[in-house]
Amino acid sequence: MAAATTEAVMEALRGVQDPEIHRDIVSLGMVKNLAVEDGKVSFTVELTTPACPLKDKIEGDCKSALAGVEGVKDLEISFGAQVRGSKVGAGQTDLLPTVKNLVLVASGKGGVGKSTVAANLAVALKMHGATTGLLDADIYGPSIPILMGVREEPRKVAVNGGYKLGPPIAHGLPVMSIGFFLEPEQAVIWRGPMLGKALNQLMGDVHWGELDYLIVDMPPGTGDIQITFSQQLKVSGAVLVATPQQVALADVIRAKSMFDKVMIPIVGLIENMSYFICDGCGKSHEIFSRGGAVRAAERFKIPFLGEIPIVSSIREWGDKGVPILVREPESEVSKIFLEIAAKLAGQLSVAAETAKSGQSLKIVSS
Amino acid sequence: MEKPVPVEINHVRAEGKIRITWDDGHVGVYPQEYLRGYCPCALCQGHDAALGKKFISVPDAKLREIRTVGNYAVEFLWHDGHSTGIYNYEYLRYLCPCSQCKQVGNES
Ligand SMILES: Nc1ncnc2c1ncn2[C@@H]1O[C@H](COP(=O)(O)OP(=O)(O)OP(=O)(O)O)[C@@H](O)[C@H]1O
Ligand SMILES: [Mg+2]
Ligand SMILES: [Zn+2]
Ligand SMILES: [Zn+2]
């Protein structure tokens, strides 16, 4: 029997697709450290996110692809992860160059659980092993400091000869809130043309360090600040949160059309307070309009990331500054958050490929 | 992506023209006076005019600089200091003066 060659192994691996990006793992550069010696094959698959929902599938596909290669006696596949950047924005200066993926959590309407979802998604991504930060951009009602139990103010850190603001750390995540900077008499600068400048300065002043993901809790609605964000920051995409009652499609439509206008891709839709897990019997009870978000997602071709039930401990612990994922990591709802975060990370990996292949605008003069 | 986006905007200074290459392969050449004339800002178009219907003649308009705005628009800086017009990609494409686009555009 002929010995296996590196070429033959590579060729076989070209038949394995990344299930989300739909391209083969060799041309995506995900196969690393390939060694072929005396029929012993080993390599690392570098996933595009540690929260990869499809690791097992990729592993299985690699095994079956290599089963057909002559002379492979032993196979060792290990996994690593290198989160890829997915921010779009032609020619803009990037105010947050050390942040690979910036995700806006938004909704057409207030009170749907954006802040709760943003906080728990950030915690979930961190639990999956990604370096994650959380930014509260809700100028109308900053609530992340409460939800995350942040008690300190940002501290001054020396960076490159100057000073920047280091975000306080809560439950292992760097957390920044626009609320730290809001003085009542300053409120006026958070609208109109000053808003852009103020945001710009805030962004430039914060020292996040290297982040795989920065989750941004947006103010409700589709007004100025959302537009300004897209103008000033390179954003990977927006996640829309809706509740079944108000998936009076109109809210999703408004949010979508606003993000379309500024060309920010919508990377997912989440239905919150979707159904009810009874404290007494532990069974789930339907809410009459459950499933509206799935239909909206289908209709607008937005990836549907999942349904979050109403659980009273979400609110109780949120009020005490402890995200449910930290408090009850093993609970049903925590598993749902982890799953949603993994799906989101998957969608961002797809977006990263699109961002790279989509040519960016070149402005030249001749 | 359904809507075309520009991949290159070339300011051909010697000819006073702006050549825009789109990701769907379309190429349009815009004279600078034409682009200036259809400036979409409220100062130029007024508040109630339908966008792109009113042409303001600025015969010696000279383009100084082109800048991107977010990932959906560009702004043009003119020699006389005017710079308040934000041309989103859709509008820019709508303005394309090539014969192919104008035929379609004039119908409506
Ligand atoms: N799945 C859930 N189960 C139970 N309570 C929830 C759930 N999601 C959110 N809540 C509660 O609903 C209330 C509103 O949630 P949250 O503040 O996250 O919404 P929001 O969309 O950020 O609101 P705003 O528009 O005011 O910023 C909070 O008290 C929160 O604890
Ligand atoms: Mg909120
Ligand atoms: Zn003007
Ligand atoms: Zn044309």
Helical segment count of chain A: 11
In angstroms, what is the radius of gyration of chain B? 13 Å
CATH topology of chain B: NE0471 N-terminal domain-like
| Count of domain modules of chain B | 1
Sheet with the most strands of chain B? 3 strands, antiparallel
Give me the strand/helix succession of chain B. Answer: EEEHHEEEHH
**Could you state the oligomeric state of the chains shown?**
heterodimer
Radius of gyration of chain A: 22 Å
Contiguous helical run count of chain B: 4
Question: For the record, what CATH class of chain B applies?
Answer: Alpha Beta
Word description of this protein:
The complex is a heterodimer of chains A (366) and B (108). Chain A is of the alpha/beta class and 366 residues long. Chain A folds into two domains: 6-81, Fe-S cluster assembly (FSCA) (GMP Synthetase, Chain A, domain 3, 2-Layer Sandwich); 99-357, Rossmann fold. In chain A, 33% of the residues lie in helices and 25% in strands. In chain A, strand 1 (31-37) and strand 2 form a beta hairpin. The longest helix of chain A has 26 residues, at 332-357. Chain B has 108 residues and is an alpha+beta fold. Chain B has a single domain (6-102), classed as 2-Layer Sandwich (NE0471 N-terminal domain-like), CATH 3.30.2020. Chain B has helices at 32-37, 42-45, 89-95, 99-107; strands at residues 6-12, 17-22, 27-31, 63-69, 73-78, 86-88. In chain B, the strands form two sheets. A three-stranded antiparallel sheet of chain B has the order 1-2-3. In chain B, strand 5 and strand 6 form a beta hairpin. The A-B interface holds A 88-92, 230-232, 234, 261-264, 358-366 and B 1, 5-14, 23, 66-72, 74, 88-89. Strand 15 of chain A pairs parallel with strand 1 (6-12) of chain B, so a sheet runs across the interface. The structure holds adenosine-5'-triphosphate, magnesium ion and zinc ion (ZN) (2 copies). Residues 107, 110-116, 138, 141, 143, 220, 272-273, 308, 310-311, 314-315, 318 of chain A line the site of adenosine-5'-triphosphate. The site of one zinc ion has 7 residues of chain B, from helix 2.
